[in-house]
Amino acid sequence: MIKFLLKRAALTLPTFFALMFVTFVAIRMVPGDPVEVRTGERGISPERLAQFRHELGLDQPIWKQFADYVWQLLHGDFGTSVVTNEKVLTEFFALFPATLELSAAAMLFAVLLGVPAGVIAAVKRGSWFDHTLMGAAVTGFSMPIFWWGLLLIMLVSERWGLTPVSGRIDLINYYFEPVTGFMLIDALKSDQPGAFWSALHHLILPMIVLGTVPLAVIARMTRSSMLEVLSEDYVRTAKAKGLSPFRVIGYHALRNALIPVVTIVGLQVGTLLAGAVLTETIFSWPGVGKWLIEAIGRRDYPALQGGILLISSMVIVVNLIIDVLYGAINPRIRHGR
Amino acid sequence: MAVDALAAQPAQPVPPGPLRAFWASFSENKGAVGGLVVLVIIALMAIFADVVSPYSPFEQFRDFTKLPPAWEDGGNWKFVLGTDALGRDTLTRLIYGARISLFIGVAVMATSVIVGVLLGLAASFLGGIVDTVIMRVMDLILSVPGLVLAILVVAVLGPSLTNTIVAVAIVYLPSYVRLVRASALGELGKDYVTASRVAGVGTMRLMFVTILPNCLAPLIVQAALGVSNAILEAAALGFLGLGAQPPTPEWGSMLADSREFIRSNPWIVTLPGLAILVTVVAINLMGDGLRDALDPKLKRS
């Protein structure tokens, strides 16, 4: 098992290295001079300019710049934003809990609705519920979520006035220092009555928007996986033993039907992070997705570079964890490679 | 007598040709046929946009800005789906938008299929270091979330329609490479390939004439679904201001333009998104039908 784990981990190393190389090269190919961004429109004396270039290491040969870059990364230095002068790593991890909170809520929403819906559709195969759900699922994963978000804001927030339009909490009435960065937890801890509800209220729409595509995928996957399992012999045996249908479906069948669903949930991590970029932009949700888009607008390349590197590293690590977990659950995979 | 009996026998049923068999299987799926019909209509409108649409997509009717659709209060039948903030006819812009979105979808699909087939076949045939390098690069692309990668590519190359196509094609490349490589590896061990080899067939011919046709079914299915993904991704880039630039009537950037009217003029926001959704649903329904018809192994029960 240890050997399998090490082998899988070692396989990701070239990917990490290539990732560093690609972000390094890509950012240098970007049109526009980062030094000019920092100095502004008016221009400065050539001496100051040279000094800036030297500070940013831009007067070094390119291979030296890359070596320095890798060296810094290995020491946990992901660069400094040229706009805010903050460390990229600090900025990223200050905003990341917001993204994580939103993504986790979206995934929870998708699983809690998608799995039961898929199971019912499979059991009542061919019923109106099945047809409606499958139609909804196709619509769901075809959904342009940026439009879906605007549509929900238009209806739920503007017309019906049920939810706030943007942000994570009502800042006029509630203010407290972030402790964990997770608004729901911080709000609970703050002992301000109503703060938790305000945070939850703000979370609902973004959660639905980000959770829609995974919901559709999970519902479809659960349904087809359940249909397959329901025709297996052990399910027939369980039925023949006289077990209640609820127990047959909920216990014997579902446990096996969920295996591919778990894989799909893992594969949605990248989708969630990409979707977070759009969702956060629409709802002004202060997470890393919105920050990344703003970094492009401000030509803050160190932030863009560091952000993409961090997000991708996270995806690689999560996929590695899922791989290893899956190998632990299913010995066939562990020994197959 | 015997001759008569033979003649009287009903004619043997002729096995249906591959196209007929495909159509018979495809048309069983009502959703797929519906998707195909809608898609054909959208495609025809896109192709004949110059003839079908009432105005030019850039023509501004300054006296008729932000009109609602004709059936709403204050609507005008001269502008069936209303006008935008600059007084441009929404219907016209949606029709031209279909042209752009479908073009992006098909261009992305064609690019990534062609490059994907070449790389996938190269990886499976040459093996060794070539295989390793190609597959590691694909792993790298897969490790960056799709939209984030597209954003990086566009940030480097600059926002434009062409760069959108390049960016999205890169994002979807790995799925084709993996698919082609896996099915080619599966075919390589089969007897008919060995037979061809023994018969002295060259590598090129083996790759493209012997093996590739046998990998086509999953590839076609993937390509159909790839078109819809590409349309969504390109629209998302347009929405973020990183895709096609105004005044191009691209659906995503039309949505971005309309964001400020979310309170006052909801239909300016509603229509472009609806166009994206309908197109993508149509393609996905058709893709499901294609999969069921071409690739019975993958059939959803």
TrEMBL record, chain A:
Its main location: membrane. SUPFAM superfamilies: MetI-like. Keywords: Cell membrane, Membrane, Transmembrane, Transmembrane helix, Transport. It is a multi-pass membrane protein. The chain crosses the membrane at residues 9-30, 102-123, 135-156, 199-219, 257-283, 303-329. It comes from the Bacteria. This is Peptide ABC transporter permease. Coiled coil: none annotated. Pfam families: BPD_transp_1 (PF00528), BPD_transp_1_N (PF19300). Belongs to the binding-protein-dependent transport system permease family. CDD domains: TM_PBP2. It is found in: Cell membrane. The keyword Membrane applies. GO terms for cellular component: plasma membrane. Residues 96-326 form the ABC transmembrane type-1 domain. InterPro entries: BPD_transp_1_N, MetI-like, MetI-like_sf. GO terms for molecular function: dipeptide transmembrane transporter activity.
UniProtKB/TrEMBL annotation, chain B:
It comes from the Bacteria. Residues 98-287 form the ABC transmembrane type-1 domain. Pfam families: BPD_transp_1, OppC_N. It is found in: Cell membrane. GO terms for biological process: protein transport. PANTHER family: D,D-DIPEPTIDE TRANSPORT SYSTEM PERMEASE PROTEIN DDPC-RELATED, OLIGOPEPTIDE TRANSPORT SYSTEM PERMEASE PROTEIN APPC. Belongs to the binding-protein-dependent transport system permease family. This is Dipeptide ABC transporter permease DppC. It comes from Alsobacter metallidurans.
